[in-house]
Amino acid sequence: MSDHPSSLSRKLPIITTDRLALSVTALMISVAGTSWAATYYLMPLMAPADTMSMGVASVVSSLSPGSIGLFELVWTVGMMAMMFPAIVPVVVFYLRMAAPAEPNPSVAKAVGTPLFLLGYLGVYAGLGLLAYLAVYAAVFVAPIFPVLVSFAFLAPGLVLVLAGIYQLSPMKVKALSYCISPLGFFAVHLRKGLSGSLRMGVSHGIYCVGCCWAFMLVMLAVGAMSLLFMAALAAVIAFEKVIVRGALWFDRTVAVGLIGAGFVVLVFPALVVM
What we know:
Elements: H1 6-9, H2 19-46, H3 65-83, H4 88-98, H5 105-141, H6 146-149, H7 155-166, H8 170-180, H9 182-189, H10 193-221, H11 227-243, H12 248-267
């Protein structure tokens, strides 16, 4: 029996008539849609129109609390836009199996669900902070060492190649298996109480980051957090987690696409502005 994540859930239906699933799907997609709109209006505040050509450097201006806070706001709202549609099955499973097992199911559903999502987003907010600090160091500290500046044009291509290689790594496969199999995740990480809901959200967020951090690195280093690039990655992530559920052919296709794009950018670095 294959241990690839697609074997864990290939028998699950893609389309359902279940009212709970449909309601959660509609709500999560509505929140995601609102988040896309919010990201559209917040992005110019982080990167003014006259600096958009500067690439990712335009969204990392300083280490001031205001600059970091604005980046974290845009990043977290962007994660809601990109990731909420992909975690609908997990939220449905929580509401159907975990919440009813609580002493007060109604409280677990009304309060525990937001706490679960808060824990999930908290992990992505932490990833965003690390990304901001890394880009700041690369943009504002690296020039102190001229030898590093000479290799800066290689960064976008190398990021694409790294993301493609990671797409087929055992760590990616393991993290993805928990992302696409709610039963597998909750069987291992089920916790009681509202604090348990928060902890489960954090745990699932860690698996999700383990699955998608390379995509986010590509979005930041290559796409400069553009809305079109974010939308394209969101489509890939949703397709991977919800539609094909980690199918090996899809993983390989994405890996080949990323590695191929990486080599193209390495040969023609002017295609990407850092």
